[in-house]
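Moderator note: this is an archived Q&A kept for reference. The question asked for a predicted structure of one protein chain; the sequence and the answer are reproduced below.
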Amino acid sequence: MSKARHDHSDVSLTKNQALVMDALADEEEPLSAYAILDRLRAHGLRAPLQVYRALDQLVSYGMVHRLESLNAFLACRNPTGDPHTTVAFTICHQCNQVSEITDDRLTSRINSIARGNDFTPSKSTIELRGICARCRNAKE
């Protein structure tokens, strides 16, 4: 998976937010808040609340995604760096590989379904769990 593409220069980050963002950008897999805290203790972060506050803000900036099913966080891998309201993730239940997918057709379809139900979404996150090609091919 490619590294996070967001540049800190587009948003003024606090010290804790920059530390958390850098920790996530250096990882290939999603991290729990406690795993982030463990990595950042040497940098002065001592309490889970410090990490959660930073994560909340990074999520609101669109720089980090929360994977609900894993209760973990992942730096945005959107290659364009453009903010997106719909994002999908494929999550391999065997190797834990996570890939981020943005697709205008998917966004359009979700918005159409929402309008048909008299609803206006502000954000959509889809998590597809299954087996990746590498793990599937290893079984064959």
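Archived answer notes: The chain has two domains: 8-75, 86-139.
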